[in-house]
Amino acid sequence: MMLEVVNLKKYYNGNQAVIKAVDKVDFVVEQKQFVCIIGKSGSGKSTLLNLLAGLEIPAEGEVNINGINIYKLSKDDLTKFRRRHIGFIFQNFNLLPMLNVMENIILPLSLDNKIPDEEYLKQMIELLAIEDKVDEFPSTLSGGQQQRVAIARALVIKPTILFADEPTGNLDKKTGEEVISLLQSVAKQLNQTIVMVTHDLDIANKADRVITLEDGKIIEDRIL
Ligand code: ADP
Ligand code: ADP
């Protein structure tokens, strides 16, 4: 099992009552699966994804990635684990404006004092069709191009698992669909496991599996 989620809970103190943002969630994701998480605003999607990626600490429960219970790791080891094993794509791209495209892409390796596998890097950049952008700065790129750079950056470490939080949320419908179809074809070639939060049902319908959240609980888990 690539990802095993056991009895995961995250509560917040609201004004009136406790908010059960993620409430007793269990599921397993196998290698190469492309899973979309959908649900209304406030259903817990972002909180769940942040818990899976080690960005937030649960009140209870386990997240096992490749057999490692990530919340049993020390803070430093979790940071290191995330840097080596987890790719994350954000809604707002999160590229560093003072670095050019290539510097942005290899940043996760640079932070780990590693050098890129040139063959892999070249293949990925070609698959994402950004080979003529590598010397540019993010501010000169369109939204779709910036998100493709962010995908390359997330994949550069050859992550065990890739998480994406509304990656098309800042793109128009057509550009969003193009970016996702590129992501899917790269993922196929790399056997990449993906868990993605999306509002867009047309995108969710292209996944292998769709998990629906409501009030922090899984109300549907559908294989397509
Ligand atoms: P979604 O991503 O589906 O919109 P979220 O995970 O952002 O849902 O939020 C789930 C619930 O938890 C919502 O009721 C939200 O208001 C609440 N919530 C999320 N983050 C916090 C926080 N840091 N403090 C308090 N409440 C939060
Ligand atoms: P999305 O649903 O698109 O992820 P949100 O606007 O719900 O975006 O949340 C954005 C950020 O604000 C998240 O990191 C979430 O944890 C936090 N957040 C959401 N709801 C609350 C809340 N009620 N109180 C504090 N922080 C919140």
TrEMBL record:
Protein name: ABC transporter ATP-binding protein
Keywords, alphabetical: ATP-binding, Nucleotide-binding, Transport
Residue ranges constituting the ABC transporter domain according to the UniProt record: 3-223
A cellular-component GO term for this protein: plasma membrane
One function term, GO molecular function aspect: ATP binding
PROSITE patterns: ABC_TRANSPORTER_1, ABC_TRANSPORTER_2
Organism: Anaerocolumna cellulosilytica
Alphabetized CDD domains for the sequence: ABC_MJ0796_LolCDE_FtsE
Keyword Nucleotide-binding attributed: yes
